[in-house]
Amino acid sequence: MTSGVITHLIATYGYFAVFALIALESLGIPLPGETALIAASIYAGSTHHLNIAAIAAVASAAAIIGDNGGYWLGRRGGGALVARYGHIVRLDERKLKVGRYLFARHGGSVVFFGRFISVLRTYAAFLAGLNRMPLARFAAANAAGGVVWAVGYAAAAFAIGSAAASLGSTVTLVGLGVTTVLTVLGTLLLRKHMARLEQRAEEMFPDAPRFPGAPADSGAGAPAVRVSGPHLARDAVGRCR
């Protein structure tokens, strides 16, 4: 989905477009929810056709609701869904093992900081449910991450849009350029450390992932393993930020 399409959706459908894109991304569908939040906030700052407080509130609600939906999908039928549709949303065995490793170490941090990391933002809630993360811990980390992410990104992007309205389009281009660079750097850092995560996950879980609800021939019924050790979630999340 191109930036032009996202901008058109926001200009046409306003808050509904912001809510839909963020909620669906949080549910586990690879869509540009974060880009929609940034674009809507810049649009609000430069045109004042949308209210920034409403955008932040809608984005927070969409993130929390979408993540809760993803959590329950993972908890109630995640094994069967992954076996049947995982390839469609690019959720393969390697991502499952990495998710299992991270949630075994420190699930709450993964949910909170995952909101700020592209790959984890899409799959964290589903993997939390799939790995049977306690609901209370998930709900607290999910709500905190969703609100901090929505308010922080909305405020920063709104400031760029407001500056553009008074100083010209150059400011917008610079702001978008900085956002793009930061996004690319974050993606590169994530990829750099993903190999290390995959290696640790493979060492901990040498067999194929086994989750409740998966078809019998894929090892259904085996509960997620929870372990303890010196490597905490900061090994992944802290370095990926």
For the structure shown, list the relevant keywords.
disordered C terminus, mainly alpha, 9 helices, 241 residues, 75% helix
Short description:
The protein is mostly helical and 241 residues long. It is built from nine helices and no strands.
The count of domains is: 1
Distance between the termini: 24 Å
Q: Structural class, from secondary structure content?
A: mainly alpha
- Name the helix and strand elements from N-terminus to C-terminus, one letter apiece: HHHHHHHHH
- Please indicate the percent range of residues in DSSP E strands (runs of 2 or more): under 5%
Q: Give the overall silhouette.
A: globular
Number of strands: 0
Q: Characterize the largest beta sheet: strand count, sense, and whether it forms a barrel.
A: none
Percent of residues in helices: over 70%
Low-confidence stretches: 218-241
Give the overall pLDDT as a whole number.
Answer: 77
Q: Over the alpha carbons, how many angstroms does the gyration radius reach?
A: 19 Å
Number of helices: 9
